[in-house]
TrEMBL record, chain A:
Chief place of localization: membrane
Protein name: UPF0397 protein JK635_20940
Localisation: Cell membrane
PANTHER family: UPF0397 PROTEIN BC_2624-RELATED, UPF0397 PROTEIN SPR0429
Keyword hit for rRNA-binding: no
Topology with respect to the bilayer: Multi-pass membrane protein
From TrEMBL, chain B:
Record protein name field: Energy-coupling factor transporter transmembrane protein EcfT
Pfam family membership, one: CbiQ
PANTHER family per the UniProt record, alphabetical: ABC TRANSPORTER PERMEASE (PTHR33514:SF1), PROTEIN ABCI12, CHLOROPLASTIC (PTHR33514)
Compartment(s) where it occurs, according to its Swiss-Prot or TrEMBL record: Membrane
TrEMBL record, chain C:
Keyword Repeat attributed: yes
Domain ABC transporter residues, every copy: 6-247, 302-535
Lineage: Bacteria, Bacillati, Bacillota, Bacilli, Bacillales
Species whose genome carries this gene: Neobacillus paridis
Superkingdom: Bacteria
Subcellular location: Cell membrane
UniProt entry tagged with the keyword tRNA processing: no
Entry protein name: ABC transporter ATP-binding protein
Biological role stated in the UniProt entry: Probably part of an ABC transporter complex. Responsible for energy coupling to the transport system.
Family of this protein: Belongs to the ABC transporter superfamily.
InterPro entries to which the protein is assigned, alphabetical: AAA+_ATPase, ABC_Co_transporter, ABC_transporter-like_ATP-bd, ABC_transporter-like_CS, ABC_transpr_CbiO/EcfA_su, ECF_ABC_transporter_ATP-bd, P-loop_NTPase
GO molecular function: ATP binding
Family matches, as CDD domains: ABC_cobalt_CbiO_domain1
Keyword terms, alphabetized: ATP-binding, Cell membrane, Membrane, Nucleotide-binding, Repeat, Translocase, Transport
Membrane topology category: Peripheral membrane protein
Length: 185, 276, 567
């Protein structure tokens, strides 16, 4: 298969990934205790998928997943945030090659790299791009949308740092044990 | 967890008869207009128009009431938030200040401009929502992928969307079953637990869900591979529907609407309609 | 001269993550138009063999291939997966993974869409194939509206549209109710006769597959072909016993009676079986064997009273079901696919709340108890193992429940290892669960509940995909638990299992209880069999054909005797 062509596995990963993103984003949000602020576990999952399947898959899972979630549960996609979900997935996915999770190694160096990337991406996405789009599209008050963005950004950074790192290390453990399984009696 | 979600509702109506491609394009045009404009006249027109289409579609309000209710609550909170954060936003936009009610000598005084601005914000949602709802409940999901492909999205990505739609109910059922079986092994899901504990418990459901989804990806891509997906540069669609006259007329109508609305909105160089 | 379509020569395959080859030195030829059955213990490499044929090995599952495999005269090394898929159509082990379309029609059309067939032709073709598998009225149905058997038929149609020459079925009967299973086998047979395709079936349920004639049976054990004979020869040989594959029950009965089977007696099918040679021995044996005694009633442990339940308002799934279970009983719940059996078990465990009715545990109302409270006494093994597994390593998975309950570590270790031994998983204790076959995964989930030692255990399809040895091991262990006073409820499609281990059976059809009787009475009552999609046992027919006046008695005595012999 050519590199610039999407493999079947990536296509399926986008489809199933989007479906899981929808379900997690709807049912697996953990309230922090402060009203209207939640840890949205679907972003931890998005980071995992982006690292496993690369930027295109990451971007499309975020985009399709978020659009579908908004559409089927809330009636209409909130485009500014949908776009940012896509961007976050895409840019985290750019670290795929460096982290190379299929190698089965996810050491401290890679954990730090992953988190640096995700913090930068999430911060720019939620604290800069999302509110800017909100202002442009919906003409909402500037201070309101930036505060929303900062809160959402921080929560997502924490979620990805905790859940994303955990998921990646679990995934790494299940990889690349070539010639390691023997029946011990 | 019988959470309701929007899904296709089978009816015989002119709206259902349109092809998915038409509806998708119309929906995109509609969203664009609603996104760009803040012109009250255009918004009002769009709103009334969407109510009319809703009538034509034979979908009952009751069938989508649960979403509407949710949106109303959201709008209420959003309006409050806007007021709290920027009670004079309207004054800034329209450049005049008609105080209706003097509260605390300034910042939180209720102005006519603010009311009008927030009315516009709300109206903007009201114009998008019926259209979005209609698009969702009148488009057969099977045809949707074919439509995406038709308007230029690569068929592989269009199929990814179809897969997502196909597997959302499955994943939801899995999620529920996993959560139940974890509870049966003694994990407490109640909200009484501490935050850290709750996070840990959530992980005990999310991790199996994600791992089994990764298995699913493997299995489904095997099945698709075995049945020749991705073999050719394009593919045909069992559910695709040919364009008819009604589609062309509808599309023309929407394109005219797009041009007119944008003209009205921007001809005075401002996306806001200023009655003051 | 018959034309060979599949030829394995000194073929071996080793998964990349394994240290030993999973398939070793396979030499096997399958001819055009043949119908071949592959049997073997769970984890012996049957699915792997199938994957070599359809190209998933080595295209999707990486590993080392040695030797050669020729399909239709072409070496597979020179073929890609798409050209292979034009020759071999495979119905995978799990229908949920295979059913990818949103509706039946789209799923059947999938391969045609990929071939860019124009829509009008596609529509005719789809309805043609749908007619063959009897799914034409359901073309618009989506997955959730289909029963397990219907899904299987759609999957079959999906590979048939491609006009492949070789059809490969991986455990087509797992999860089908007995009547639907029988129908599926007849359907496969009919298609083979009409189209003269080469058919390969991988299946544990030998007796059910032999319902229709098979040309050859290949036995695989531990990655090697250990026997390749006609059904008649195989049944007359000791191979099945040696590698723990369940023989048809009537064959066993004949053997118990002391009759020597030879291929000339045509034992592969009860109708062809020359019973006259064994009549006398069967009669003598019948006279000799003792009648089993009924067990005493003890206290009621679990009681359901007038339970009503529906997933969606207005569509009742369970309607007015009442029954009570005695302490120390072993009961089967049987019935059609989609009758509501799994739903019933979920109601008992509190996964779902009944709309009406009450559930009592030791005469205490537990209808309002939480899942966690009920789980302390009632353990449940769900139908789909993937929904229960939450850890990556086998040991951790089995230990999970004990860890949550705060059991000391030393004790956890002891209990977990003991349970793993019982479930035949001890050699794998340090493996990740992802490297297990389906049957092995199922055993992990059984182990994870057994280790908690609940008072009542509900098992949903415990033996689906298990080979006879593990089946016996698991069932004997359950029996042992049962004798120590643990109450066991089993949901099953396996009529043998029900007859052998559970004296009593509750029959569910369309969400209602239609019978609650001894297993033997249920399986000899034509009305119940018909209504609940069950299947008459071959023992009964054997007795009738042998001219035994009380066939029911014969069945009962056989079971009692069989149990004694096997212990
Ligand atoms: N993807 C894999 N990676 C590594 N090992 C595998 C993989 N799939 C199967 N195996 C190993 O190969 C062996 C044979 O597996 P296979 O699925 O072919 O068994 P099977 O005979 O079909 O069993 P069952 O009747 O339970 O389906 C198993 O012991 C398993 O551990
Ligand atoms: N979570 C669910 N939501 C909605 N409907 C469901 C759900 N689970 C099962 N059903 C439906 O309820 C009916 C009974 O299903 P159930 O799983 O109890 O059948 P079953 O007797 O266990 O069948 P099988 O033998 O195939 O396992 C079916 O029609 C099924 O489609
Ligand atoms: Mg198998
Ligand atoms: Mg069931």
């Amino acid at each position: 298969m050519k590199r610039n062509q999407l493999s079947i596995k990536t296509i399926v990963a986008i489809g199933i990934g989007a479906a899981v993103f929808v379900i997690l984003g709807r049912f697996a949000v953990i309230p922090t205790g402060v009203p209207n602020t939640n840890f949205d576990t679907s972003y931890g999952f998005l980071a995992l998928m982006a690292i496993i399947f690369g930027p295109v898959a990451g971007g499309l899972i975020g985009l399709i997943g978020h659009a579908l979630k908004d559409a089927i549960f809330y009636g209409t996609p909130w485009w500014s945030w949908v776009v940012v979900s896509g961007l976050v997935g895409f840019f985290i996915g750019l670290a795929t090659k460096k982290i190379n999770i299929e190698s089965g190694i996810f050491n401290v160096k890679k954990i730090i790299l992953f988190n640096v990337v995700q913090i930068i991406v999430n911060a720019i996405g939620w604290m800069v791009i999302a509110p800017t789009l909100d202002v442009l599209i919906y003409a909402e008050p500037v201070n309101k949308v930036y505060l929303q963005g900062i809160v959402a950004g921080c929560l997502n950074i924490v979620t990805v740092a905790v859940l994303g790192t955990l998921l990646l290390s679990i995934y790494a453990k299940s990889r690349g044990q070539s010639g390691s399984l023997t029946k011990d009696v | 967890m019988a959470v309701e979600m929007l899904s296709y509702i089978e009816r015989k109506s002119p709206v259902h008869r349109l092809t998915g491609v038409t509806k998708l394009l119309c929906f995109l045009i509609w969203s664009t207009v609603a996104m760009l404009t803040y012109d009250t006249r255009v918004l009002l027109f769009l709103f009334l128009f969407s109510v009319a289409i809703f009538k034509v579609s034979k979908i009952k309000w009751k069938e989508v009431a649960f979403v509407l209710l949710f949106i109303l609550v959201f709008l209420l909170i959003n309006n409050l938030a806007i007021y709290v954060f920027s009670p004079q936003e309207g004054v800034k936009i329209y450049g005049t200040r008609h105080v209706l009610l003097d509260i605390g000598g300034g910042r939180y005084s209720l102005t006519l401009e603010q009311l009008f601005y927030q009315f516009n914000v709300t109206l903007k949602y009201f114009t998008v929502i019926p259209a979005a709802l209609l698009f969702l409940v009148t488009t057969n999901p099977s045809e949707f992928a074919a439509s995406l492909n038709r308007i230029g999205v690569s068929y592989k990505i269009a199929y990814a969307v179809a897969l997502a739609l196909r597997y959302i109910p499955d994943i939801q059922r899995d999620f529920r079953n996993i959560s139940l079986s974890q509870q049966a092994r003694g994990i407490d899901m109640s909200r009484k637990e501490k935050l850290s504990k709750r996070l840990k418990n959530a992980a005990s459901i999310i991790i199996p869900l994600i791992l089994s989804s990764l298995d699913k990806i493997e299995m489904i891509s095997n099945a698709m591979e075995l049945r020749g997906f991705g073999k050719n540069k394009k593919r045909t669609w069992y559910r695709a529907r040919p364009f008819q006259k009604i589609d062309i007329i509808t599309l023309m109508l929407f394109i005219i609407m797009l041009i007119v609305s944008l003209y009205i909105t921007f001809y005075d160089g401002n996306r806001f309609y200023n009655p003051f | 001269m018959r034309k060979p379509v599949i030829q394995f020569e000194n073929f071996s395959f080793q998964y990349r993550s394994q240290t030993a080859p999973t398939l070793q030195d396979i030499n096997l030829t399958i001819y055009e138009g043949e119908k071949v059955l592959i049997v073997g213990p769970s984890g012996s490499g049957k699915s792997t063999l199938g994957h070599c044929l359809n190209g998933l090995v080595p295209f999707s599952y990486k590993g080392k291939v040695t030797g050669s495999l020729t399909i239709d005269g072409e070496d597979t090394q020179g073929l890609d997966i798409f050209s292979l898929s034009k020759k071999v159509g495979m119905v995978l082990q799990d229908p949920d993974g295979q059913f990818i379309g949103l509706t039946v029609a789209e799923d059947i059309a999938f391969a045609l869409e990929n071939d860019c067939l124009p829509q009008p032709q596609m529509i005719t073709k789809v309805s043609e194939v749908a007619k063959i598998v009897d799914m034409e009225p359901h073309l618009e149905a989506s997955t959730h509206q289909l029963s397990g058997g219907q899904k299987q038929r759609v999957c079959l149609a999906g590979v048939m549209v491609d006009e492949v020459e070789i059809l490969l079925f991986d455990e087509p009967l797992a999860n089908l109710d007995p009547a639907t299973g029988k129908y599926a086998i007849e359907l496969i047979d009919r298609i083979q006769q009409e189209t003269n395709k080469t058919v390969i079936i991988i299946e544990h349920r030998l007796e059910d597959v032999l319902h229709c004639p098979v040309d050859r049976i290949i036995v695989i054990d531990d990655g090697r072909v250990i026997s390749d004979m006609t059904p008649d020869e195989l049944l007359a040989s000791p191979v099945l016993e040696q590698c723990s594959i369940r023989e048809p029950l009537y064959v066993r009965a004949v053997k118990y009676a002391g009759c020597r089977l030879t291929p000339e007696l045509r034992p592969a099918h009860l109708d062809t079986f020359q019973i006259n040679a064994c009549k006398k021995q069967l009669h003598d044996w019948f006279e000799k064997v003792d009648i089993p005694k009924a067990r005493d009633k003890t206290e009621t442990i679990l009681e359901l009273k007038a339970i009503d339940f529906s997933y969606f308002p207005g569509q009742p799934t369970i309607h007015d079901v009442s029954f009570s279970i005695q302490k120390g009983e072993m009961v089967s719940i049987v019935g059609k696919n989609g009758a509501g059996k799994s739903t019933l078990s979920k109601l008992i465990c509190g996964f779902e709340k009944p709309n009406a009715g009450k559930i009592y545990y030791r005469s205490q109302d537990i209808t309002a108890d939480t899942i966690k409270e009920r789980a302390l006494r009632i353990g449940m093994v769900m139908q789909n193992p993937n929904q229960m597994i939450s850890k990556q390593m086998i040991y951790d998975e089995v230990a999970l429940g004990l860890v949550i309950r705060g059991v000391p570590e030393a004790e956890i270790k002891e209990r977990v290892l003991a349970t793993l031994k019982i479930c035949g998983l001890y050699p794998f204790r340090n493996w990740p669960i992802s490297a297990l076959s389906f049957g092995q995964k199922k055993r992990v989930t059984i182990a994870s509940i057994l280790v908690l030692e609940p008072e009542v255990i509900i098992l949903d399809e415990p033996t689906a995909g298990q080979d006879f040895r593990h089946y016996t091991e698991i069932m004997e262990f359950l029996l042992e638990l049962n004798q120590r006073g643990v109450t066991i409820i089993m949901i099953t499609h396996d009529m043998h299992l029900m007859l052998e281990y559970t004296p009593r059976a509750i029959v569910i059809a369309g969400g209602r209880k239609i019978a609650d009787d001894t297993a033997v009475n249920v399986l000899t009552d034509a009305r119940i069999i018909e209504e609940a999609n069950l299947k008459e046992t071959s023992l009964f027919e054997l007795a009738v054909r042998a001219g035994i006046s009380e066939p029911k008695q014969f069945v009962e005595r056989f079971i009692a005797y069989d149990r004694e012999v096997r212990q």
